[in-house]
Write a structure and sequence with these properties.
By secondary structure, the chain is mainly alpha-helical. It is built from two helices and no strands. It is elongated and about 50 Å long. Helices cover 74% and strands 0% of the residues.
Length: 66
């Protein structure tokens, strides 16, 4: 029972972090101004998008498997 709770919590945490990173990448890609004080080029937005996807996919998998 305790292991299932931990998996769901950790999966939800990974999913939320992944969604936030993907949203940040989308906003930074569409914006011409600095986002949160960071000037990011169009190609540099690929990194937070990929990292966000890598966090989100295992998070959703942990939630669905527990």
């Amino acid at each position: 029972m305790e292991n299932t709770r931990f998996k769901r919590f950790f999966g939800a945490l990974l999913t939320v972090i992944g969604i936030l990173l993907v949203l940040f990448a989308c906003v930074a890609f569409l914006s011409d101004k600095p986002v949160f004080g960071l000037e990011i080029t169009k190609w540099e937005t690929l990194v937070p998008f990929v990292v966000g996807a890598l966090f989100m996919i295992p998070g959703v998998s942990l939630i669905s498997n527990s």
